[in-house]
Amino acid sequence: MPLVDDIARAELEQLSARGLLRTLEPLRTPPGAEIELRPGERLVNLCSNDYLGLAGDPRVAGALADGARQWGAGAGASRLVSGDFLPQHELEGALAALAGTEAALLFNSGYAANCAIVPVFAGPEDLILSDVLNHASLIDGCRLSRARVEVFPHRDLAAVERLLAKTPARRKLLVTDAIFSMDGDRAPLRELQALCDARGALLMVDEAHATGVFGPRGAGLCAQEGVQPALRMGTLSKALGVAGAYVAASRAVCDLLVNRARPLVFSTALPPALACAALESLRIATGPEGEQRRARLWSNVRRFAAGLEALGRPASADSPIVPFILGDPDTAVQVAARLRELGHLAKAIRPPTVPAGTSRIRFALSAAHSAAQVDAALAALRTALLVK
Ligand SMILES: Cc1ncc(COP(=O)(O)O)c(C=O)c1O
What we know:
This protein is of the alpha/beta class. Helix content is 44%, strand content 15%. The chain has 14 helices and 13 strands. The strands form three sheets. It has a seven-stranded mixed sheet, with helices on both faces. The chain has a three-stranded mixed sheet with strand order 1-2-11. Strands 10-13-12 form a three-stranded antiparallel sheet.
């Protein structure tokens, strides 16, 4: 019987040999456009999902501290026991108002939300259609549901139509990212909604990278596209700069989730202080300052995409996520290392996060970046590619 350390070391060696080993390295500074990793190593952060630059905002951090003073550090129990506090309800009301839905319900993370929601609405007698590039949390939600899962080619409406037409399943659920997390492109939400409506399927949209970034008052891509899916999930952890997630839906849907969603029922609730921080972040993101931050964000996205085009690598300006595909994992790691030497943090993304042969640098732009930082990032990328 091998010791657990022997098992771990053997697996780590295999990962390392394939260029797929990942390690942790803590930041020495709060989140922001500029961060410090090794002592004295200042880097422009080009790989955070802090799209509006709110994660390090003193007002949001202050609301967290004030919230903790008033409500304590932790919720102490699942919401169904004694972990349900007023700030969580206030936040749910604000999120529902933003989404234009009857209700909203919080989860501890986007990952937990997807694992929670999908199995409540699809089971062994049902069919789930899932875009091949959906986030791992949706994939895991599908697995937990024990439904039959048909993975369709990326954004392929003809495949969706075919799959929806032929199924005898009791219930059909189509799940998609709104913004694909590693490619930054958008799901064809209007077309997907029309196909689902025509075939009596439920549509679930993951707005993790769309909340705060798209739509009126940052309400998301569904709001921008005028789509009202049955289940709309979003996160508080990315543009809103805090942690946690929500589903915006009807009251009945939220009530059923309170009864059946295992990550909600069997897990300690999101601390109420975090709800206080998210309320402050939401106040900023949905107000005039949010509009200004979104304008800066989109200006940075367009500037970066134009710069890539000038490098001969046209990129869409569909979202703040801009992938730069390099192919094999070693090349991606080398280019990331070179960027870091040049003062820029943009991590290599490798399988299994992305399909084999598509290892990449995933750039993420933020309203916190200055135009000069965007230009410097492009110059660093040009140099890093030459050295490769
Ligand atoms: C599309 C998508 N859904 C869900 C998640 C999970 O969200 P969270 O980081 O809040 O767990 C992420 C991010 O990691 C994501 O990119």
